[in-house]
Amino acid sequence: MIIMKQLCMLLAFVVSIVSTTNAQSEKYYSAMGNTLQQMRDAKTAETWLELANKFERIAEAEKTQWLPYYYAALCQAYAGFSSTKIDKDAVGTKARELCDKAAALENSSEIYVVRYMAATIQMMVDPMNRWQQYGQMAQAALDEGFKLDKNNPRLYYMQGQSMFNTPPAFGGGKDKAKPMFQKAVDLYKAQPTTNPLMPSWGEPQATDMLAKCG
Q1: 183 phi and psi, to 5 degrees?
Q2: Is the residue at 17 inside a domain?
Q3: Looking at the structure, do residues 114 and 189 belong to the same domain, yes or no?
Q4: Are 73 and 138 part of one and the same domain?
Q5: Residue span of the structural domain in which 184 resides
Q6: Is 76 within 8 Å of 95 (Cβ atoms)?
Q7: Residues 196, 113 share a domain
Q8: Is residue 25 part of a domain?
Q9: How many folded domains does the chain comprise?
Q10: Domain finish residue from 100, 122, 149
Q11: Best CA proximity match to 81, nearest among 126, 52, 115, 44
């Protein structure tokens, strides 16, 4: 009788844990889904920064999920690229800090895409004088990303962007960028879509850049 009572208490405890976990999971997926939808509609630096704060709050509430930190960093990067008035050093530094938090939970190649973006943003402040520091930082991020996942289309998209914006005299140009954009587009088409929260951005932009390469 005592053993049966103990078993019933244990079962009730397990059911309680599972129910609490499921409720937390549903809350997380709902918050992420809603914020990702807002992210798709965002167009201004101010909105990107607001969304970065939302994702960071989700991350701090969850503690064990890397994607909210990743998206918070990505929103910081988007803000840096979308406005000439924004403090690019501030958003670049913040994006890297958020990448560090994401990487502590999951060492994903996606995080290195954002590290590349953050370094590029800060290099844009003064390309001639900052190339040595931030250019190398950006390249190192791509290199590490490829080591983790050579089939990540966003890595090739970023690599193509870099080559496209590098003058032919310095080894860049449309001809050099085209194979990279083509590789990105091909990988986007093969990208799995089983988890709606996983990064999937960049395909329209890569396709557009491929067209610009002729």
Answers
A1: -65, -40
A2: no
A3: no
A4: yes
A5: 151-214
A6: yes
A7: no
A8: no
A9: 2
A10: 149
A11: 44
Q: Is 125 exposed, middle or buried (0-12, 13-18, 19+ CB in 10 A)?
A: middle
Contact criterion met (CB below 8 Å) for 73 and 48: no
- Burial per residue of 12-34, b for 16 or more beta-carbon CB atoms within 10 angstroms, e otherwise: eeeeeeeeeeeeeeeebeebbee
> What tokens appear for 28 in the block?
């997380």
CA 149/CA 155 separation, integer angstroms: 9
pLDDT in tens, 145-177: 999 999 999 999 999 999 999 999 989 999 999
The enclosing H or E element of 15 equals helix 2-41
pLDDT of residue 10: 35
Which of 69, 132, 71, 117 is CA-nearest to residue 97?
69
Residue 52 in domain: yes
Report the candidate in 139, 131, 124 with the shortest Cα–Cα distance to residue 92.
124
Cα–Cα distance list, 70 to 98, 143, 182, 197 (Å): 7, 19, 26, 11
Three-state SS at 42: coil
CA dihedral 19, 21, 27, 29 (to 10 degrees): -120
Report pLDDT for 24: 55
